[in-house]
Design goal:
Layout lengths: L3 E5 L10 H10 L3 E7 L17 E6 L2 E6 L9 H22 L5 E6 L7 H10 L3 E5 L5 H5 L6 H16 L3 E4 L4 H5 L8 E4 L22 E6 L8 H9 L3 H4 L2 E6 L5 H11 L4 E5 L6 H6 L3 E5 L4 H4 L5 H7 L4 E4 L3 H8 L3 E3 L5 H12 L3 H17 L3 H14 L3
Parallel strand pairs: 1-2, 1-5, 2-4, 5-6, 6-7, 7-8, 9-10, 9-12, 10-11, 12-13, 13-14
Antiparallel strand pairs: 3-4
Helix pairs in contact: 2-3, 7-14
Length: 403
């Protein structure tokens, strides 16, 4: 049996993504794992300390060889540089993949960003016949249109052709959301495997002392994660501010994280003199347990666009693992997870009045209801979003795709 696996991913350690844990787990099982990626720059768009942004070099991660290519920095506030970053990895990564790819038995693509990042992986099937498995976290072409590109005939034709090329030259597909299956199927052959493997929760340090959000006792609502335009925090902030004053004094909205839209939101809160809304900035992942523990409700939210109704943000599973009630301010799969499993409350992301009502309902939730939400979260983590089962399942899919 072949033992060599090449992981192709735009993001890898010290960037914080689940592919780091996959690489570790597969290596511990005896597979020889190497990684093809870029110089680390996420999320700030700047090269990490200790790394040089060279055209090509090798480093080591827990005994595994990491092949790195140059990354375009400064993309946090520049769409042009962000697009250039994607195409740079596609081109440079493809050259490196074709140079080193013959020696591997299996190829695994972590498709967490632009689909262009999977070209280095699928070229190894097209040219060398290597079995390639992709774990799809973001569906193209839907996400391209969701981020503001106009759906014109010429662009649609190019994107559809590109997506078909990538999926055709893969052996098997895993998807992180059940709703992704119907969006991927039109681009693949009928006999191609498409299996559901959700993200698992980030590991939480249960021994950490809870953070103190306020001196007075309040109901704390917390959003934690990337702060961009698609997170719909405008409507959440406006809905929270529309609470009656008596309810407002009992609650606080905490926003933890960083992103391209952070300053805009801070200016909105300051200019409008919104009360009891606090921005805490970005916090280290290994300390997040402190903030989740201190929260009464955790918020997962996205704007109302078709692609996002199929998306389950990775933070959802972490929130569930934290055993905290959830406010799902979005439509589709993530909202259904919360409502079907009775993990908290949900609201239409476009309806500010409905979001306000959910905040109010949460403020007055009984202790018994809170305990039931928490119990349901614990059960779901053990049975569905189990890290070991998911990683083993992805490995079995990768290996079986070569048979």
């Amino acid at each position: 049996m072949g033992k060599k696996i090449l992981i192709v991913t735009e993001y890898f350690y010290p960037e914080e993504f689940k592919i780091n844990e996959i690489a570790d787990a597969w290596s511990e099982k005896g597979y020889e794992v190497d990684i093809l990626t870029q110089t680390p720059t996420y999320p700030f768009g700047e090269v990490f300390d200790g790394y040089k942004n060279r055209w090509f070099y090798k480093d080591n991660y827990h005994g595994m060889t990491v092949y790195r290519v140059k990354a375009v920095a400064g993309y946090k506030t520049s769409l042009f540089k962000k697009l250039l970053k994607y195409f740079t990895f596609m081109i440079l990564g493809s050259f490196v993949a074709l140079k080193i790819g013959k020696k591997y038995d299996y190829v695994f693509g972590f498709d967490v960003g632009a689909l262009t990042g999977m070209v280095p992986a699928v070229l190894l099937q097209k040219f060398y016949g290597k079995p390639v498995t992709l774990w799809v976290q973001d569906v193209w072409p839907d996400s391209v249109y969701a981020y503001g590109f106009k759906k014109r005939k010429f662009l649609e034709s190019i994107l559809d052709g590109f997506v078909k090329f990538v999926y055709k030259n893969s052996s098997a597909l895993a998807v992180s959301g059940k709703g992704f299956v119907k969006r991927v199927q039109p681009y693949v052959e009928d006999d191609k495997k498409i299996e559901y493997f959700p993200n698992w929760a980030d590991k939480l340090d249960e021994d950490l002392t809870p953070f103190k959000f306020s001196q007075n006792e309040k109901v704390h609502f917390t959003f934690a994660g990337n702060i961009g335009t698609v997170q719909n925090l405008d409507n959440i902030i406006k809905a929270f501010d529309s609470l009656e004053n008596a309810d407002m004094q009992k609650a606080q909205l905490n926003i933890i994280g960083d992103g391209s839209y952070l300053k805009t939101l801070q200016e909105l809160v300051k200019k409008s003199n919104f009360q009891n809304i606090v921005f805490w900035g970005r916090k280290p992942r290994d300390e997040m347990s402190r903030y989740l523990k201190a929260s009464d409700f955790l918020i997962v939210s996205l704007v109302n666009k078709p692609i996002f109704s199929l998306t389950v943000p990775a933070k959802t599973q972490t929130y569930i693992a934290a055993k905290k009630p959830i406010l799902a301010i979005l439509n589709g799969d993530a909202a259904e997870i919360v409502t079907d499993n009775v993990l908290g409350y949900s609201a239409d992301p476009d309806n500010i009045e409905e979001i306000k009502d959910v905040f109010q309902k949460a403020i007055y939730t009984s202790k018994e209801e809170l305990e039931q939400f928490m119990h349901n979260c614990e059960s779901l983590t053990e049975n569905v979003f189990n890290k070991e089962k998911i990683i083993d399942g992805l490995l079995n899919l990768t290996v079986s795709s070569g048979k």
